[in-house]
Amino acid sequence: MKHAMPLLPYTLEALDPLMSKETLDFHYGKHLQTYVDNLNRLIEGTPWEFLSLEEIIQKSDGGVFNNAAQAWNHTFFFQTLTSEQEEMPDNLKAKLTESFGSPEEFVQQFTKAATTLFGSGWVWLVADDKHQLSIVAESNAGNPLRDGLKPILVIDVWEHAYYIDFRNRRAEYIDAFWKLVDWKKVAERI
Ligand code: MN
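A: This is the predicted complex of the input protein with manganese (II) ion.
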C-alpha cells in the first residue's frame, strides 16, 4: 500500500504569524513529504507494503520505523492545530483536572517536558488502557503506540519545527503552539 500525504485542515497561511507559511512549506511540504516518500520507497516490494501505518510502527525498526513513525507523528501533529481555537470542552477540562490537578497544571507540566526534552523528539499526552492520562517524552521518531498507549495530543520539538519562526527559542514556539491547539479535536480523543 502506498502511503499518501495527509491533507491539512487549514491553508498554509492560516496559522500565520504563530506558525508561518514558510514553516509549513518546509515542515509539511518538505520534511513530512520526505518521510512519506522514504517510507514508500523503503517498503516497496517488501512485506511491509501490506501493513497499515500503525502496524508498521508497532512491528518495524531502523529506517522503516523512523520514516513510518515520522509520517504518523507529523500527520497527528498537523491535524491537531487550528487557526480558530475554541475554549477547551468541559469533558477535557474534567479529565485533565482528574489527571493533573487542573488544565493549567497540565499545560505547565507538558510545557516543561517539551522545553527540557534534550535534542529532537516529541512530547505526547497519552491515555493507557484504563483511560488514565499521562505525559510521555519520546526522542527522535518515538511513538507511544509501541507501548500500547493512545496518543491524545503531541508537540513536535525537532528544531525544524521552530527554527524558521523562532530560531533557537523553543519556549516561544511552545507558547505559540498552545494558541493553535484544536481542543475540540483533543477532547474527541479522550
Ligand atoms: Mn517535524
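The pocket of manganese (II) ion is lined by residues 27, 31, 74, 156, 158, 160-161 (CB under 6 Å). The radius of gyration is 16 Å.
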